[in-house]
Amino acid sequence: MEPDPMAQDLDINHDTLREIYRQMSRIHEVDKAIQAGLSSGKFMFTYWPLTGQECIPAAIAPLVTAEDSMITIYRGIHDQVAKGVPLKGLFAEALGRVDGVNKGKGGSPHISDPSSGSMLTTAIVGAGAPIANGIALANKMRGTGKVTIVNFGDGATSIGAVHEAMNLAGAWKLPVIFMCQNNQIGEYTPIPEYTASEGFTARAEALGFRGITLDGNDPVAFYNGMKEIIESVRNGDGPVFVEAMTLRLGPHAGVGWSHLLNKEELAAAKEAWPVPATRKLLIEAGICTEEELDAMDKANAEEVKEAVEFGLASEVTGEDEMLLDVYGDPDVVPVRGQRTQRAAEPEFTGETKEMAMFEAVQDALDLSMQLDDNVYCLGEDIGDDPGGVFKCFKGMQSKWGERIRPTPIAEQAIIGCATGSALVGMRPVAEIMFADFVGVCMDQITNHAAKQRYMSGATTHVPMTVRMIAGGGIGGFGAQHSQSTEAMLLHQPGLKIVYPSTPTEAKGLLMSCIFDDDPCIQMESMMLTYALKEEVPVGDYRIPLGVAKVKRPGTDITLITYGWQVMQCLMAAEELAKDGISCEVLDLRTLLPLDYDRILASVEKTGRALVVHAAVEFCGLGAEIASTINETLFGQLKAPASRFGAAYAPIAYSKTIETAQVPNVGSIAARVRDIVK
């Protein structure tokens, strides 16, 4: 259809402008329905109104397809509507119903709908930006030409994750658009009270890519500006930061008008409100009659009404869903009294080669990349040269090219990128140099990667692996490079955690993690990285997750341990044998899923148990295991199960202090003698 003369004057096709208004009207009807439902008490959920920001996603919608990805925030219900998330599923989800797009398990702030390209919604301000990079990286590596848009408010520009993400996107020239919907109020604090910046585009320019300010209330100007930007990003010209100027008319949360604007400011904001303003423009330009727009609004209102009725009629998501979608396999969830029986790995009889742990890790990475083009690695300093601080990547960048990706020093950007690429089918292996640094990226690991399968009702999952080095046992590294942080991570449902004690297990567990469909963490002891060598299976070798292994049989007491403490326990068992005490040493290998069946079977045989770990004893994994043994085998025990971990202090720089504060051969043997006597 040819554009009419008046539409040409507006520099936009009249059908496109009609469609933009139709989407704005749909968004407005959704907004009205939610506010009415909350005000009447018909709805019970949290709502962060988008009133005033309808034009931004409505004008983007004609320029993208469902193949293009979007990430947004808890205030992004307007983004969801325009992206094509089904309204029936959207309302059912907000209401916590089984017919929601995520089975009612994500709710209004956690929408995921891959069918429309709405990949993730985060309730953490600014946290979506690093994840968007991962989706964009996957598209770049696959050469798809698809675009990723990540939406956030002006308040998110103060968050470090956004800066890390923008820096990475600029360095890697990723096809991503950082869409800052500048509604001029960061939650309850207006600009300029939280920043001295007069605008935000200069932040992109400082990082080496374009920053553009557009009027987010003008559908013609915003559409035309975004058309050029999306084409540029789609053509491989790198990221763009868009500052879409608008104004939030509602409160931070709840219903009604903003109480942060005075009477005059609110009146002016309503005058610029794009929904009535665009309606007026269409009529005055002769593109639509008032009757045509009335019919359009009525149709949208009817669609929303049907969606509301559908949502309210849907069954409330029940407690039977409680432990489903935490992992792909519900048996992974640790439940009191549950003794899941898992088969051990078959006895290996093939070719072997002597390797240290760092060589076994590299072998696992290299083989996994051969087996699956979706496997790639990212982390600090992993390129040639140096091939990783611990040499696990030596020579691999020369062999694998862009599938070995050295990153900036930015743990949030690293884990977010891994998460995003995993959402769209990649199998990233991210390295965090030391386990101590996990605190820097805890949000990305625990609030996003770990929870995404559950919050999305299994519409998405995150098959990524994080490798991290656990210091300790060496001396000289001190309090910020020597922690064993597994207890922090074990308290986060959704993660699987392994902790190998030998090169063979480092390879076999890592390969299983890489090809697992849940986010996995492999902790590798720095003490064992170079010191321990053994014959390691050559080729595709995997150790099933959740299977412990008896490293030394015994009859008097079971030492339950993992990581570098396995070596300490084995040496302690040798010493204790001289005293006539027979110790069974059980290497957990996998901390979650935990092999309670083999733990309990061993203790049933010996009647005594001591759990030993290098991590701080207080609130450590040992307390959980000992408690479970005592509850389950109370009548069969010869002594209460106990645990032995590090003293409650940061790991000392002094080798003398560290040796004393972490379980060692002598202190383990002493504890065993106390228990057995």
Automatic annotation (TrEMBL):
Q: Which UniProt keywords apply?
A: Oxidoreductase, Thiamine pyrophosphate
Does this UniProt record's set of keywords contain Oxidoreductase?
Answer: yes
Domain (Transketolase-like pyrimidine-binding): give its ranges.
Answer: 355-531
Instruction: Read off the SMART domains from this record.
Output: Transket_pyr (SM00861)
**Needed co-factor(s):** thiamine diphosphate
InterPro entries assigned to the protein according to its UniProt record, in alphabetical order: DH_E1 (IPR001017), THDP-binding (IPR029061), Transketo_C/PFOR_II (IPR009014), Transketolase-like_Pyr-bd (IPR005475), Transketolase_C (IPR033248)
A Pfam family reported for this protein in Swiss-Prot or TrEMBL: E1_dh
GO MF assignments: oxidoreductase activity, acting on the aldehyde or oxo group of donors, disulfide as acceptor
The answer to whether keyword Oxidoreductase applies is yes
Span-the-membrane segments of this chain are: none
Query: What does the UniProt record say this protein does?
Result: E1 component of the 2-oxoglutarate dehydrogenase (OGDH) complex which catalyzes the decarboxylation of 2-oxoglutarate, the first step in the conversion of 2-oxoglutarate to succinyl-CoA and CO(2).
Q: Which PANTHER family does the UniProt record give?
A: PYRUVATE DEHYDROGENASE E1 COMPONENT BETA SUBUNIT (PTHR43257), PYRUVATE DEHYDROGENASE E1 COMPONENT SUBUNIT BETA (PTHR43257:SF2)
From the Swiss-Prot or TrEMBL record, give the protein name.
2-oxoisovalerate dehydrogenase subunit beta
Annotated organism of origin? Mangrovimicrobium sediminis
